[in-house]
Amino acid sequence: MDAAVWVAALSGLVGTGIGGGLSIWSTTINHRRQAADRREAEAQARASVAIEEAMEHLLAIWHEARRSGEQDGAAKRSLQERILTVQILMQRVPHAELRERVRVTTLYLPLSPPDDTRSWEEQRVDRIFLCADAVACLGAHLRGESLPRPTERVTQIRGTWPFMEAGTDRDTFIWESEDSPQHPANTLLEPT
């Protein structure tokens, strides 16, 4: 056999090996990209469902705040449970700024600052404004828009508090009323 035939055969084998290797590499990269895209799509789907559920709870809080009359114990517990649910649902949302905005807004919903002089009616109206702010943010996110600026009223509500910094997402805490049956102060201790 002639050397040229060997060189051609060897070149063909090397070319086939390189082509096969590039094909395997390309397929592997494509599968990884598809898996990452699939995980991202699943995370976005979970986030969208969580946002829609959070909006339902916020709208229920808003609707309850529109009713006249002071809250009784059951209504306060319902408010606390809805807030807790919203805060848990927001943990599925990968958008940190949205998560933080809704967390802080819902933190203000049930609380009265020290020496609060607002009537229950004013507190109820403030709750409506806070819910509207959180719903506007969630809706903007679902539409792919940037978060709206807080209204002047929401900024004023936040300004009534002795603390302006409510911690970060990492410091998340959920306020629980002392009226709550799950609160440690209301748990009966069994004698040992």
Share of helical residues: 55-70%
For the sheet with most strands, the description reads: none
Element string (H = helix, E = strand) = HHHHH
Number of strands: 0
Shape verdict? rod-shaped
Summarize model confidence as the mean pLDDT: 80
Nearest-angstrom radius of gyration?
28 Å
Low-confidence spans: 183-192
Distance between the termini: 97 Å
Query: Number of DSSP helices?
Result: 5
Beta fraction: under 5%
Structural class by SSE content: mainly alpha
Write the layout of secondary structure elements.
Layout: H1 3-66, H2 73-89, H3 96-108, H4 120-143, H5 152-159
Could you walk me through the main structural features you see in this protein, from its secondary elements to its overall organization?
With 192 residues, this protein is an all-alpha fold. The chain is 66% helix and 0% strand. It has five helices and no strands. Mean pLDDT is 80; it is low at 183-192.
Concise summary:
The chain is mainly α. It has five helices and no strands. The longest helix is centred in the first third of the chain and has 64 residues, at 3-66.
